[in-house]
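Memo to structure team: turn this sequence into structure tokens by end of day. - J.P.
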Amino acid sequence: MKDLKKYSNKTKAAFVLLIVMIIILLNNFKTLHSSKKTNENINAIYNDRLVVERYIFQYANELHSIKAYAIQSQLNDSQKKEAIVIALNNIKNIDKFYLQTVLTPKEEQFFNSFLASCATINIQNQASNWNQIADSGNQALQTLDKLSTLQISEGKAKLESSNAIHYGNNSLGELEIALLVILCGITTYLLMAKKTKIKIKIPEAPSMN
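Reply from structure team:
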């Protein structure tokens, strides 16, 4: 405290200003990083969750078609095989896009199980095992339901993370405003305050009269 008395009020004000500006600068860097993370979460929700949900819907449509072809009595075996092969090829085309998305380990596990069911359907189709195709189709649909549930939980986790970042940024913004108010008050006080000058009165010499 004694050392501070050596400096002028303007020097003290500049020192306080420097400290507060450094704190605000660090907060801004943190806010920029948080904004980048929020943007990544939003992109992930769209690209890896909403878009994937659309792929799952398309998979389900193809599987329902396969089941319908397998039990349809109006079609002969050759027609059933041809229709199911087309549906399986449609599924393979969707696979290319699905695999471009980011999969969690659990999603990858379910997706591999789904691909295995599709491979089984292909084998059963070649052997004209129509009842087994319907069972395999149901199994694949159950796997898709699990994948869809994962999309919801992962999307919710990303949303909660973004909300937490948003609230954190708000808190940092409020902190910066508070610091600026404090800075304004301190600097104003230091600049307006005057040092108390001690006046020493020298006694006059005694008169010779």
